[in-house]
Amino acid sequence: ESLADVVGTAATATLLRRAIKRAAAQTSWPEPITVARNGLDYEYRLPETWKQPGDEEAIGALRIVAAELRVLLVELTGPVVVRRLARLAPFRKLGIDFNEETK
Prior knowledge:
Layout: H1 2-7, H2 9-24, E1 34-38, E2 41-45, H3 56-77, H4 79-86, H5 89-93
Helix pairs in contact: 2-3, 3-4
C-alpha cells in the first residue's frame, strides 16, 4: 500500500510483477506468486505454504523479491521510495532492509 501511495496501483503491480519474475529466476517456488487485475484494483496471490506463520522459506523468498524490487525502484526513482519502504516496521521485523543492496 505504501508503494502504491507513491507510484500508483498500476505501477506498483508492474514493478512487483517484474521483481517476482526476476526473483523466480533465482529460486524455485512450489506455486507461483500472481498479480492480477480485478476491475480497478489488483489482487496479489501468494503460495498457500507462504501463509503459514514463521515459514522461513517464504520469508527468504520475500527477501529475494524485495531485493529485486529495490533494484528496480532505485533505477526508476533513486533512493526516495526505498527509504520510505525501509521505514516500514513489517519489513524491518522480517529482516528486509530496503536501504542496503542485498543482492
